[in-house]
UniProtKB/TrEMBL annotation, chain A:
Belongs to the binding-protein-dependent transport system permease family. CysTW subfamily. GO terms for biological process: transmembrane transport. It is found in: Cell membrane. The lineage of its organism: Bacteria, Pseudomonadati, Pseudomonadota, Alphaproteobacteria, Hyphomonadales. InterPro entries: MetI-like, MetI-like_sf. This is Spermidine/putrescine ABC transporter permease. Residues 69-290 form the ABC transmembrane type-1 domain. It holds the Pfam family BPD_transp_1.
TrEMBL record, chain B:
It comes from Candidatus Viadribacter manganicus. GO terms for biological process: transmembrane transport. Pfam families: BPD_transp_1. This is ABC transporter permease. InterPro entries: Bact_Polyamine_Transport, MetI-like, MetI-like_sf. It is found in: Cell membrane. Residues 87-282 form the ABC transmembrane type-1 domain. Residues 1-22 are annotated as: Disordered.
Amino acid sequence: MEQTWRQAKAAFAAIAVPPIAWLFLFFLAPLAVVWGYSLGENTGPVTIDVTGTFANYMRAVEPLYLEIFGKSLVIAGLTTLLCLIIGFPVALAIAFASPKTKAWLLLLIMLPFWTNLLIRTFALIAVLRENGYVNAILEWMWNNASGVMAIVGLQPLGDFEPLTLLYNNTAVVIGLVYVHLPFMVLPLYSALDRMDRSLMEASLDLGAGHLRTIWSVVVPLAAPGIASGVLITFIPALGAYLTPDLLGGTDSQMIANVIERQFKRANDWPFGAALSFLLMYLTFIAIAVQALVQRKSERRG
Amino acid sequence: MADQGFTSVPGVGASQREPKEKPGPLEYLRRWPLRVIVGATLVFLYLPLITLMVFSFNTSRRNVVWQGFTTDWYVKAFNNESLLQAFVNSLTIAFFCTIISVVLGALAAVMLWRFRFPGKTVIEGGMALPIVVPEICMGVAMLVFFARVMPWPMGMPWPLNLGAITIAHISFAFPFVATVVRARLASFNRELEEAAKDLGASEWRTFWDVLVPHMQPGLIAGALLAFTLSLDDFVITFFTAGPDTITFPVKVYSMLRFSVTPEVNAASTILIVVTVILTAVGLQMQNNNEAKDKKA
């Protein structure tokens, strides 16, 4: 049973003050300042007056920026979907593996997740660029195919055209899937691992196939895990800065890149502040939706 | 390593180790479609990293074709004064961030676990905020804060000049520590605490001799988490760092912008190895603790 704070005021104060003070001073206060700036305007090169204007938000919902928000949502959504499609079978396989294999596979999935995000993105650049490994392998296959065709007397293929895999939206999605896959696999795994297996056995005994069992027994049972996996993949993907910055082209800027530009190059802090708070609101909406889904599935269960 | 999972990598020997009996109905890992998917996923996750590490030993500058083994790029990376400085900065920040985050996170966890107080839900929500707020938003908040509200004094001697970045890192790391420690506290039997007090131990003594030993695995896991979070952070540091307070990821980022050389591969490989070793040590310590728990 929890103790009420009145019973041990001194102990409560000693324990509660440092973390709460830190949270307020070095986290909530900076956010509050940014929030204030989002309602302000530039009145000089380095002065911002908080005038309570909504002009920044009005500008942020103009078609140009609305489109970037829309694009970020689509890219993050697509990333989440791909992570789910790849991650679900992987999580299923891990959850039903023998204990020893399970531990190894989990470690293997987690290991890249502990590797620096920047380095992983950089590694992906080396793989995807025009003279990168993917294109090198394709070229080798192309040339061999061409050689074989010449031997059997067919017209050899033309010169190899390297695929443009970098600096476009596809590259951004690949990069985001690459770095966020572990975020999806782990919650899915823990949901599938906790699941009551006798229900699956019953379904299989009663004649349902594996796909049918997975679709109508496993997926509904794992729904809360799927929802939390979707959430913790979607949120960082939506606010991703590094991946679109390094892998994307000029037309694959996401919302975080626009925010960065307002703060670092355009020096329009009030507008950048408004954009970053809109991004935060989107994040909170996503969390609220997930909480609703969770509550609904709990009530059903 | 002789386990089924490892033979699932395509071409490594799934065929020569055909299971004698048919796989059981729920042994999904022994079905080939799932083996292919798991194998392909692992290849997708590891191929870029492994090629990066392998090609850090390549003689060629245009690092696609293997031309020969060399450690020149490591020598170059180690002779790169600013890269080394950035690396030392990163480790220093991560060190201080870990210590303070563990203390704050443990206190926060104990507070939320032990007490009932008005506004508890609000504080709980506030503690979860740094985990869910997009990094970029926190980055600009730190930029604004240290530029306008609390300017960090310029020209401080090392390592004091890293204070702003360290503060920013603690702000996002300690809620993670609090979550981990609180999960550990859930298994604590509160009667032990009462027994200690009945037997005459003071509040402080009970905390230190009864609660802290129980929290220890959580504290270690939290410390490890805080260290890697701090070492890996790019976005928040990118906004908080001044011109002379560069961390390793920020330095690698600027090298990347400039040109991609195998020197960056070498530097990256070093960081990967450092992180993997730290994680392995941490996992080992946690396993030992769990084994001890089971014995007790």
